[in-house]
Amino acid sequence: TGSGEGEFDFGFGGGIKIGYLHYSEDKDFNEFQIVPGIELEAIYHDTSETMEGTAGYSGTNFEADFQSVTIVVNATIRFHNEHLTPYLGFGGGLIYMELTDAQGALVSPFGPDVVTGAAASNNSEFTPVFQGIFGLERMIYYPHLSVFVEYKPMFIPDGDFDLQLAGAGNTATFEITNHLNHHATVGLRWTF
User: Fold this and answer.
1) What single string gives the DSSP state of each residue in the chain?
2) Taking a C-beta distance cutoff of 8 angstroms, is the pair 8, 178 a contact?
3) pLDDT at 1
4) CA–CA separation, 80 and 86 (whole Å)
5) Which residue(s) pair with 168 in the sheet?
6) pLDDT tens across 107-155, in order?
């Protein structure tokens, strides 16, 4: 088992949200108001991971495909205006992560070893996840359809993957610990 520095490459994904926004009944929709909300969000993300310098090994260099599905519950607060609405939020839930097609080399104190195409006994992991939300929404079809942009820092506390090594069927554990991922999102929202 070792630890070291890893870097996620630029990736793509998609998602869907469903939720409830509590607008004041005393105000018109086009008036300024502070609107609390809650939403359930599911996100799929696909990227690759590059790892170097695992403790206990030298010359470590491998790459792997990394897919994840995240399900979180978010609490939001919107500063609603007729056309442009900034908002903030925080969420927590679970992330399912899968590491596949690992390729590369590890040099241990006992000699070189090769990371083969698939992870060994543990190539997937469920773990808690937390995220912040910083968003901006623009109404394009009043009052139902809007476009939004979001920045979401996502914190993954822990995740372990066992990589299959070609030599003598050995494994090496790759750990994700206290990882902060950065997501930028553009989407459409329908309000009814």
Assistant:
1) ----EEEEPP-EEEEEEEEEE---TTS-TTS-EEEEEEEEEEEEEEEEEEEE--TT-EEEEEEEEEEEEEEEEEEEEEEE-SSEEEEEEEEEEEEEEEEEEEEEEEEETTEEEEEEEEE-S--EEEEEEEEEEEEEEEEEETTTEEEEEEEEEEEEEEEEEEEEESGGG-EEEEEEEEEEEEEEEEEEEE--
2) no
3) 45
4) 7
5) none
6) 555 555 555 544 444 567 788 999 999 999 998 987 789 999 999 999 9
> Which helix (H) or strand (E) is 136 found in, with range?
strand 124-141
User: Who's near 128: CB < 8 A, 6+ residues apart?
Assistant: 92, 93, 94, 95, 157
Q: Kindly give the pairing relationship between strand 58-80 and strand 84-108.
A: antiparallel
How far is Cα 116 from Cα 135, in angstroms, rounded to an integer? 41
- Tell me the backbone φ, ψ of residue 169, rounded to 5 degrees: 65, 25
**pLDDT given for residue 120 in this prediction:** 45
Rounded to 5 degrees, what are φ and ψ at 55? -60, 140
For residues 179, 184, 190 and 191, what is the CA-based torsion angle, rounded to 10 degrees? 60
**pLDDT tier at 101, thresholds 50, 70, 90:** confident
